Structures are given as C-alpha cells and as structure tokens.
Amino acid sequence: APVLRGYTDQSGRRPETRLLFARVGTLEADSSPFPHCVIRNFLRDEEFASRLQGALLRQPFHSKNTDLYNFTQSDDLKSSKDPCITELRSVLFGWFRLWLSDLLDLELEPTVDVSCAKYQHTDVLLCHDDELEGRRVAFILYLVPPWQPSDGGALDLYSTDEHGQPACVVKSLIPCWNSLVFFEVSPVSFHQVSEVVAEDKCRLSLSGWFHGPSLPRPPRYIEPVLPRQKHLPRDESVLYEWVSDVYMNLEQQVRVQQEFEDSSEIRLPNFLKEEKLKEVISALQLAEIHWDRSGPPNKRCYEAADLRSVPDSVRSCWELFCSEAFFLLLSNLTGLKLHTLANDPDSEDDEEDEEQATSSAAIKKDGSTAVCVGEIRRWTRGCYTLLHDSDNREFALDLLLTLGCSGWQQDFGGFTSYVAHGEDEELLTVLPEENSLALVYRDTDTLKFVKHVNQRSSTHWQQPPRSFYDFSITYYE
C-alpha cells in the first residue's frame, strides 16, 4: 500500500530527513474505537533521538495541576531555537503534515502547536476528547525508557455509548521509545493517560495538534439528573439520637452560624455520636451493599450506593440528613432559610424562637419549599469528579460527611476543591476528615470537583476495604 512506503514529494524524491514516516511493518493503524495509528521507530537516527530527548529534558517545565490532570509541561516549543527541536518541528509541520494530509484526505494548516510533557509517579491525564476549535489531528512522540504495562502511563482509548459519551477503556497503547501515535480529533476521540505508578521512570513525550477544519459537533447530550426531594417527616428525636450533644446546644449553634456567615463554610468535627459512627462505618464496610459505577468518565468516576440495598444503620443515617428536623438544624447552623421557622424575622421573641427551633411543634408547622439531593459514595484509587460546562450553577449548601478516612493525607487526592468559574485558583479545599461535617455555601460562579485518588493512597490502605465513604448532599432554599 502507498501509505507504507514513506512520503515523496511531487518530483518523486524522498525528502532529506532523519525521519522515515512509514516503513513496512512499522505502521499499525486501527479504526476502533476511533481512527488511530502507531508508527514504530519514527526517528530513523537513534543518535538524533537521544539528543532530542536531552534537549527536551533541558527545557523549563511547569507544574500543571487541575481537576483534569497532574503533570509537568514545557513552554510552547514553536519558538525554541534548539537545533534538535527546530529540525523536528520543521519536519513535523512540513513533510509529515503533508503526508498526513494525503493519508487523511484533509487539508492541514501549517500552524505549529507543540510542547513536551513529563509524567512521573502519580501523574495522570483523565478522560477527555481533545476537541477544541481547529484541532484536527493529535500526535504524541514517546522518548521513554523501557516501559511495561505495570508502569502505568498508557494512552487509554475509550469506546462510546449510544449517547456519544465515553463508556470504558477498550484499548491501551503502552509508551515505547521512538514511537509516534496520532489520531483524528473528533466528538468520540475520548482518551486518557493512565496514572503513572512507576516511581523511578519519566514518561517523556512531545505532543501537539495539526490544525484544520473542525468536524461538526453533535448536539450536547443532556444527562438525567438526580431528583430533588423535600424533607422526610422526622421529628427532633432523630437529632438527639445521632448528632453530638455539642451541636444541639443553642449557644453553640449561634457561634457556628456566626462563623459560617463570615466565611460561607465551616467544619464541624466529631459530628455524629461515636457509637452511631462505628455502626455506620461497619455497615458500609461489611454489608453487601450494591454500588453503582457513576460516570461517564469525562465527568466523574466513583461508586454510589443503591439506597434500596443499604442496611438499616446506613439508611437511618441517610434519613437523618434528609429529615425535616435536620433541615431546621442546618438553618440554625448556617442562617439559611431551609425551614420556615428558622430565624423568623417576624418573630418578636428571639428566646421563644430558639426554644422551639428543633421542637416537634415547630417542625409540624413547616411549609418550606427547601429541597435536597445527594448520594452515599465510595471512593477507591482511581476515583474522581471533573468540572464540566453542564455543572449545576445555583446557590446551594453542600454537606459532606466523610467516613473511613482516618489519617488521610492531601497528596493522596480525594479532596474536594472549590474554584471560581473560569479561574484556576482554588477558593477552598475540603480534605477527607473522619466524622467531620463540612458545610459550604456556593454561589452561581463557584464549581467543585474531587481530585483523582492516586496510587499513594495504597500506602494508607494496607488491607481491605481499600476505600473511604461520604454522605454528599446538596440543599436548596
């Protein structure tokens, strides 16, 4: 086939270059799960490949750390004056671009878009499709030491479901010295760089995009959302059964509310009574709960409990957070209007209001429109959530109670980050802390994600169950 013969110019001459674009037996093409190709021994001159590796490693690198990825990256290499980088750049965006244009029957622009990246222990790039305006073909040139599947760092390719959303990894391309991978950027080109678990290897790659006319995008799929619910009819006895006595004290509630109103967030340690805490953790770890994988992986990856399968102690804890009595307690702790009798501005007797703040009579009179929605989640290595354009943008109160995470460290991941829309800087980080209730009020410009739980967490989980849990509930006034 002509594709396997190396590119020649219009006069029939092969360009003078150290690259041999395609030698028989070195090009592997596949259309599943989306069109992609691997060229082995891409650089014909091994000495040049080694010098290029050295030139790339001498570049200044910058840490890149967001919801989607964690690695170090060079500056844009389009203006680098290094001889090796200059030569490779001129060939990639010259002859190789022309060869790709012929191969794909596609007009590719000479726009230079290239940088290099280092992935080291626990670095990762989570599921995405690369599809930005003008990107047409992605490429990656690997300059790595001998690499094994057990080292991680594979280029994982995803299949898609009937909605065009990523489903599961169906092919993994292992990095190999002097190999180049390229694929067409499309609405279904979902891929990731799996977490590097090797502690002593550097996954060095040079990557970029060839630009051209973008493919039309299908209409955005709107996924169904969890239904919101009104509070459950439970009186104040459920609070005294579950909640530590300190938070049932009215003076303490006033202090908590003052602190919350100042910062829009608070952590309440030792929130559940000790005996109840032990019951719930034991049930979550030992019970035969049905856990559903929550996706798609370009938005989230964790497990959520099927509430129909949870044991009584877990169900009772869930009902606590959804109860009318708890809505009223939250109102007292935050000053938000989650119950009609909370901080009633028309009341003439504040003391009387406080006395009936969690009383059965008060609860029975509530006509509030406040609602909540949430899940019981299980977090293991590899779990995460990502920021997304379709994320809910409303004023809301987030509640997070984490269990089974004693001794957790920030460098394990698994923490919740709040960020301003369109900004990189974190506004707030909520670390998993045993039996600590986190309350965070967010506005329409505040988004959140849970950082990828990485391989370092394995040192924390010496024996099963290798997971922690949380009750994650959002309340709307």
TrEMBL record:
GO biological process: regulation of translational termination
Cited SMART domains: P4Hc (SM00702)
Signal peptide: none
GO molecular function: iron ion binding; L-ascorbic acid binding; peptidyl-proline dioxygenase activity
Keywords annotated in UniProt: Dioxygenase, Iron, Metal-binding, Oxidoreductase, Vitamin C
Any one GO cellular component localisation term in the record: cytoplasm
Fe2OG dioxygenase domain residues: 110-212
Residues forming coiled coils: none
Catalytic activity: [ribosomal protein uS12]-L-proline + 2-oxoglutarate + O2 = [ribosomal protein uS12]-(3S)-3-hydroxy-L-proline + succinate + CO2
Organism superkingdom: Eukaryota
TM region positions: none
Xref: Pfam families: 2OG-FeII_Oxy_4, Ofd1_CTDD
Cofactor(s) required, per the database record: L-ascorbate
Family: Belongs to the TPA1 family.
PANTHER family: HISTONE ACETYLTRANSFERASE COMPLEX, PROLYL 3-HYDROXYLASE OGFOD1
This protein's name: Prolyl 3-hydroxylase OGFOD1
